[in-house]
Amino acid sequence: MNKSELIAHIATETGMTKQSCAEAVDAVLNGIKTGLVNDGAVTIVGFGTFSVGERAARVGRNPRTGEEVEIAAARVPKFKAGSDLKAAVA
């Protein structure tokens, strides 16, 4: 399911317009993004926790030339599923 399919599903379930559902989905996604930037984690009880992880610097290889390349350390988004989500998928 992609974003537009999710919006259509929410509109069908709630009876809201697709435009208002799109605005709501965008607001939720922006809220999660802002929470990660400002606080480092966003927890939705039963659904899961979005967090920011650290990826250490490492040495990689250029697949074309085989040359070693330094890959810088980076902050990366992570998601850990909550118990309700795990149970629904199982």
Automatic annotation (TrEMBL):
Query: Domain of life, per the record?
Result: Bacteria
Q: Which SUPFAM superfamilies match?
A: IHF-like DNA-binding proteins
The UniProt entry's GO biological process terms, in alphabetical order, are: chromosome condensation
Q: Which CDD domains match?
A: HU
For molecular function, the Gene Ontology terms on record are: DNA binding; structural constituent of chromatin
Keywords assigned by UniProt, alphabetized? DNA condensation, DNA-binding
Name of the protein this chain belongs to: Integration host factor
| Organism this protein belongs to | Ralstonia solanacearum K60
